[in-house]
Write a structure and sequence with these properties.
Elements: E1 6-29, E2 35-53, E3 56-71, E4 76-91, E5 94-95, E6 105-121, E7 127-149
Antiparallel strand pairs: 1-5, 1-7, 2-3, 3-4, 6-7
């Protein structure tokens, strides 16, 4: 680095970690009557929050499972309801270890709300449902960035041209973009 340049450290709040996790889980709901067939299964009232947990972020939540089923040889119908609690540990695929841990804030977004993909009657009078869900998480914290400065520069009135010429990014490899984050 030429000696006329100096560097400064700037403390700023930035995204210092990201992660995403898709998962499939199963739950067993036991209706009060022995089900003959499943007429429908859906999930409502999904609520969750994110907390920092070591090298990842935990998503802690609940949702209500509703099973509409027939019983007594398909002569009656009813809806079975059950509240399900879960903890999903989402690992961070990117983590800047130079962040200030005392300033960490975490967040989660359900990129796919929990939804039932299959519901079948089990042998013991219960209903087994398969649920898919996906979360994207972020860790925001204070961190330092270094910038180069030119001391004694008195170019306050100078206008800069930040316009891009056609072809400035032609040689970039789009495969290098990390879209999973």
């Amino acid at each position: 680095m030429p000696s006329q340049f100096q560097s400064r450290e700037i403390i700023t709040k930035a995204i210092c970690g990201k992660g995403r996790k898709f998962s499939t889980v199963t739950h067993t709901v036991t209706p009060p009557h022995n089900p003959t067939s499943i007429l429908g299964a859906w999930i409502i009232n999904h609520q969750y929050e994110a907390v920092a947990a070591g090298e990842g972020i935990e998503v802690i939540g609940t949702y209500d499972v509703n099973i509409w089923y027939s019983y007594d040889k398909n002569s009656q119908t009813a809806v079975a309801k059950e509240k399900v609690s879960y903890v999903e540990n989402v690992p961070l695929t990117y983590l800047d270890g130079r962040h200030r841990s005392s300033t960490v804030e975490v967040s989660a977004e359900a990129t796919q709300e929990p939804s039932t993909v299959e519901a079948v009657v089990s042998g013991g009078g219960g209903v087994i449902i398969r649920v898919e869900r996906e979360f994207a998480v972020e860790l925001v914290a204070e961190t330092k960035i270094n910038v180069l400065v030119v001391p004694g520069s008195d170019e306050g009135d100078k206008e800069y041209d930040f316009a891009l010429d056609d072809g400035d990014y032609d040689e970039l490899d789009p495969d290098l973009l990390d879209e999973d984050l």
